[in-house]
Amino acid sequence: MASDISKAYGKVQKSTSGGRAAEAEAFAKSARNLHQAVCEPLDSVALEEALQSNLKLWTVLQVSLQNNEDYLPDDLRKDILKLSIYVDKQTLKARAAPSLENVAPLININRNMAAGLFQKPKD
């Protein structure tokens, strides 16, 4: 599961066409994996795998943003980097106390990232 998401995002970095859709799918898949792992009954092994996979996805995004590989406007790039720091902290919180309450913010962020990426960019 973890490597699938990392591979999907890695392919996005190399692709020029359809990259947004692949990025969106990586975030959507990560959200699904987190949600499935935290649903009753909570599966601690699956949750740890999903958290680790999500962390890898966000780490790849952080590196890409720091290298300005996405060519985003500075304000947007900085905001996403701030969000990625929050994701890191929330992941630690979810690992320390696995619960839907602690994982839900990660699920929601990933769903929102996916939704934004699935939208057509405005010219």
Structural summary, described in words:
The longest helix is centred in the middle third of the chain and has 23 residues, at 44-66. The chain has helices at residues 2-14, 19-38, 44-66, 74-96, 100-118. It is mainly alpha-helical and 123 residues long. Mean pLDDT is 87; it is low at 11-17. The protein is globular, with a radius of gyration of 14 Å.
Give the SSE map.
Elements: H1 2-14, H2 19-38, H3 44-66, H4 74-96, H5 100-118
Helix pairs in contact: 1-2, 1-3, 2-3, 2-5, 3-4, 4-5
For the structure shown, list the relevant keywords:
mainly alpha; 123 residues; 80% helix; single chain; globular
Quick description:
This protein is mainly α and 123 residues long. The protein has helices at residues 2-14, 19-38, 44-66, 74-96, 100-118.
Which spans of ≥5 residues are poorly predicted at pLDDT below 50?
A: 11-17
Shape, please? globular
What share of the residues does DSSP label as strand, in percent?
under 5%
Helix coverage percent:
over 70%
Euclidean distance between termini CA atoms: 35 Å
Main sheet attributes: strand count, strand direction, barrel closure: none
Regarding quaternary structure, how should these chains be classified? Answer: single chain
Counted up, domains total 1
Class from helix and strand fractions = mainly alpha
What's the gyration radius in Å?
14 Å
Provide mean pLDDT, rounded. 87
Number of strands: 0
Number of helices: 5
State the order of secondary-structure elements, H for helix, E for strand. Answer: HHHHH
